[in-house]
Amino acid sequence: MLWERDELLGTAAAAGEAARAGNGRWMQVTGAVPGTGRTALLDEVVRRQTADGMRVEHAHGTPEEAAFPYGLVRRLFTEDIGGVPFVTPTRHGEQWLYHRLVTRVARLATERPVLLAVDDLHHADEPSRHWIGYLARRIAELPVLLVTTTCAGYTDPPAFPADTGTSAELRPLSAPAVVRIARAAGLSTQQTTTCVEAGAGNPALVHALVADLRDGPFPRSSPVRSRYQETITGWIQGLPDPRSRHDCLALAVAAEGGTTPGLTDRVTGLFPTRSSPGSPSTGHRLGTLLRHPLAREAVLAAAEPEELAVLRTHVARVLAEEGAPATAVAARLLCVDRPGEAWMVRSLEEAADEALRAGRPAESAGYLRHALRGPLAPDRRAGLAMRLGALELPGNVTAGIRWLHTGLELHTDLRERASAASALSAGLVAGRDPDAALRILHQVGRAAAADDDELVHVLQALAALVSSHDAEAWRDAVSALRALAPVAPPTIEPLVCGLITEYEAGAGLCSAAEAVARVERRLGAPVDQRLRTAWLGSAATLLQWADRLEEARALAARCLPSSPVPPDLTDMGLQCLLSVRAEAALWAGEFGRVIEENVGWVELSAKQGVRLPHLAAMVALARSEIGARAEAWEAVTAAGPSGADTSWEWNELGYACARLHEADGDWRAALEGHLACGAGQSARDFVSPVATPWRSGAALALARLGRRGEARELAEEELRHARTWGTGRTIGRALRAHAAALGGRLALESLTEAAELLGSAPAPVELVETLVDLGRARLDAGNGRKGRDTLREAHAVALRLAEQKSGARRLLDLTEDALRRGGARKTSDGQALTAAERRVAELAAAGHTNARISSSLCLTRRTVEMHLTNAYRKLRIARRTQLVAVLAREAAPVGE
Length: 896
Fold this sequence. Notes:
Blueprint: H1 6-20, E1 25-31, H2 38-51, E2 55-60, H3 71-76, H4 91-111, E3 114-119, H5 126-136, E4 144-151, E5 165-170, H6 175-184, H7 189-199, H8 203-214, H9 227-237, H10 242-254, H11 263-267, H12 282-285, H13 293-301, H14 305-321, H15 326-333, H16 342-357, H17 361-371, H18 378-392, H19 397-410, H20 414-430, H21 434-448, H22 453-467, H23 471-484, H24 493-506, H25 512-522, H26 532-545, H27 549-559, H28 572-587, H29 591-608, H30 613-625, H31 629-638, H32 648-664, H33 667-682, H34 694-704, H35 708-725, H36 728-742, H37 746-759, H38 764-780, H39 784-806, H40 809-821, H41 835-845, H42 850-857, H43 861-875, H44 883-891
Helix pairs in contact: 1-2, 6-7, 7-8, 8-9, 9-13, 10-13, 10-14, 14-15, 15-16, 16-17, 17-18, 18-19, 18-20, 19-20, 20-21, 20-22, 21-22, 22-23, 23-24, 24-25, 24-26, 25-26, 26-27, 26-28, 27-28, 28-29, 28-30, 29-30, 30-31, 30-32, 31-32, 32-33, 33-34, 34-35, 34-36, 35-36, 36-37, 36-38, 37-38, 38-39, ...
């Protein structure tokens, strides 16, 4: 079926009617590009004119026979006409031959009207084309219709007289017509859009696309051996002159990175071969089509690699000379195997800067990687290698380390070497090779010793930070830091102080108050940019240990990017800030937040070759708290074995494993895990329970195993260190372990003090666990009412955590089991508020704060909070705002 060709068929029909009446006519049908349907139109004209009684003589021009004189003429006549030479005759002989052939046509036409149908006249031999023009000037009084088709841009068409015929150009199919063709073939909306856009209204391409898409989706943007690609490749291979071929390729290359005004004019005509003057090449006629990726890639697939390299280099040079954005220039250069000239390397380097400023580090790395394939002086190669290494490091630690090693080996500039050493050491630590990182930092530090004191101090601080991941090196690093502290420049001193304070906090040599004072004095001080994240990580760690959780989170928020932008997981300071943010959320009972914020980074780090065991430990503990025990074990298992790594992070992971054994009720395994964690911490002089309270865990396990003497010894040591640090969390946690070791009535005093301390600390998990133990101890001591009230209070705290979407399943199960065993109901339908609870609830409903209620009723703040908790539980509400309506309903008379 022919689409949108009725007008041309009508013109042909009128010409045929005139020819049958004895008034010969010609009709020349031209297609601007191949595939426009010339042959299909001619075949339809032949069919219709044959049906109307015309005799048809049909011939088709072919490039293979274009060199043989009169080849088309011989194919045009079905009967032997004889006397047609196989060489071009003389001028006189040519005139005689032309006249004889026209006479032959006239004789045929006396029998019945004749249709001479010549397809692809542009491919015919030149003598045959000249004769066709001669015939067109002599058929006015003959019953002859001459219909020819030709494709523009191949050869100059013969001159036909305007008064006896018509020239018509085949226009592209309209979009609605293409839609109807695609829909008739059963294609989807998306596939139909592809036909409209990539077909450009060219019938051959549209039908090729329909056939391809009907067979299934393309495997990629340019299908291998697709009909569409074969069609375009056939056109390119059949172009009549090198200029047309080169112009097609130039247009395709020019459109690769998006169209640039005037660019096609500057790249076409690059090659010296020309067709006839003033004749637009087929390449220019294909320009619109070649802007589509499918068509462009099909054209480029027909090119030789050498041709494309020349064109892409030329296009890139034109863009560079005219001041185009560096990324537009570099996009072309990426397709050239090697940037062999200085301007190419410079353009790629500028593009890397441009992409990085726009927040596209992966693209920037691609430009630098290609630039390094070019001819470079050693220092220049070193600089580019270091830049590439720094970009690669966050996404691929192995590749980043390799490039940074290259830069470090080649560069002679001391500061550049120091920069490479800093980045390389971070990558090595991320890849769990702190020994190699320390060797590199010490090596570069020794080289800088004679020239740059400040640089030496920066490297010393970084080496100390790296040493924190190695138990043996950490002690020596602290000694060096203490020697550095009095002489350290002001921009380096905060990190030096922070690392020393971390050591002293862990070694039980300073209190939380003293550590916080040191941090607060230095938070406003300027810090060397090379050390900024490391300093903030150290400060946030100390604030978190001191139970200043919100302040610690605020420091993390200064540096960590907003999701879903990933942080640089090889930056030791950012790693620390991620850990602080996760552990602060865990301590606050925000288990869902821990999982939501960190699972993605744990998985991403594994793909990048970075191991984050501390973050994995936080995720595991959070999953355990929400009752996902199997997933918790998967998290710690995925972190892999520590091997010879003695980093503090593996101690954290070991502690998490011990806690998971506790949740499973495997107290022997829990004990072994806690003791192993303790051995790792002791190797680092870390005795404080602030980070991994392994003694408390071991004491609880020993008590469960009936070994109270050993438990008491560990618990008393833990309590002593906890009181040195001085926060409610650490002391309360240690007191709970001490109570477990003592047992019986002796435990009540420790548990009561622990509950008081934890109630005013941001430690809801420890508070619930302690209240459960206290409630049970009171029940065992014969104080049933008070014991059950304490258990209800524990359940209320656990319930509040669950209502905050933390999913505190473990704590809820713990409190519900304790309530059931203690003979108490976990809810109290119909249970009246006590007078004290009602007074507090009414004041809260009136809008008073807890502090104001405490002052007006002469109660401690903790007592006010306990009364409110009990009131919420009895009234079965979760928020302060619900108090007004519930109290009003309770006070209303019956029947209202």
